[in-house]
Amino acid sequence: MCARRASIEESLLSFQTEFNLNPSQPLFKITYKSSPIWPISSSVSDHKKITRIAILDSSFNPPTNAHYHLIVRSVTNIFFQNDKPIIIQTPEGRQQIKEQGLEFFDSCLLLYATKNADKILSSSDANHVDRLLMMETLASHIQSTAPSDTHFTALKNLAVGVVTHPRFIDKAHGILSLLLSLSNSSFGFSDNISRQFSLYFIMGYDTVIRLFNPQYYTNMREELAPFFETNYIICANREGYDGEEAEEQFYQNEIVREIIGIEGEKIIRIKLDNEIAKISSTRVRDIVRNELRVKNKESTKEQNKVQSDLLELCPEPIVEFVIQKGLYRKEQ
């Protein structure tokens, strides 16, 4: 772990140096990938020109079961026919996959922005390196628990990446700039193949609302419309935000419909179980901060109680990381 931490620190230093040369240019860097040809799937032939990437962008402070289910639910429930998304949530419905020759995601990306549009990194938060290490831990957990079905190979073809800019239009620009700069030979394909990448950003309804907030744009229509020409949003329900009726009204808003189109194919909506939807990283941090101290003065019984509480909110490898590294604890 020490060697990996040092490697990430060096990578971030190089990343920051490059960013400082041109701060206005969105910059994206891959810090981990499970395959040398990521984001291309190893099962894909030369003839498939579009590579679909499911992207979970978050602060990962820390990663939770909600993060895990967001990425898994997206990959296992969303398929494509003639480039149009089809949501299949039942085992019976999945028979369509073989019968209709549906396509699926090729890869996944866990994405972390070093700058947040609304929040400033505080001393009690996990630092950039710890978050990227936890994201790698989450990626390994996703790979180890992924279904063996060949349609879900994206869950084994994962990368962790970092981006400099907080707005999604800039994140997409940074990611695509890097991917399009890579040669076909780096992916194992012949040079005469023209590759395309479709990015699907997974987010909660609360984040979708912020995406359409005019305060982040000079001209929201002009800036968001090009984003939706080549990128998509996967929106999941979020506990405590407005309710279904208000959510429906939001999607029927004239400006939203004008930007994403009347058919609404640019925003794919999935539903998490309510118990999962209400999990938050804030809740995890609060449990640790209220129950554990830096100097480990708690009894074994107290530590076991906290660990049990955290296991209801986070994958076990994340809980182990948080406790072992002493993250989010009180100083006294």
From TrEMBL:
Entry GO MF terms: ATP hydrolysis activity; nicotinamide-nucleotide adenylyltransferase activity
Entry-linked InterPro entries: Rossmann-like_a/b/a_fold
Name of the protein: Nucleotidylyl transferase
UniProt superkingdom: Eukaryota
SUPFAM superfamilies: Nucleotidylyl transferase (SSF52374)
Cellular component terms per the entry's GO annotation: cytoplasm; nucleus
Leader sequence segment: none
Keywords for the protein's UniProt record, in alphabetical order: Transferase
Stretches assigned to coiled coil: none
UniProt organism field: Rhizophagus irregularis
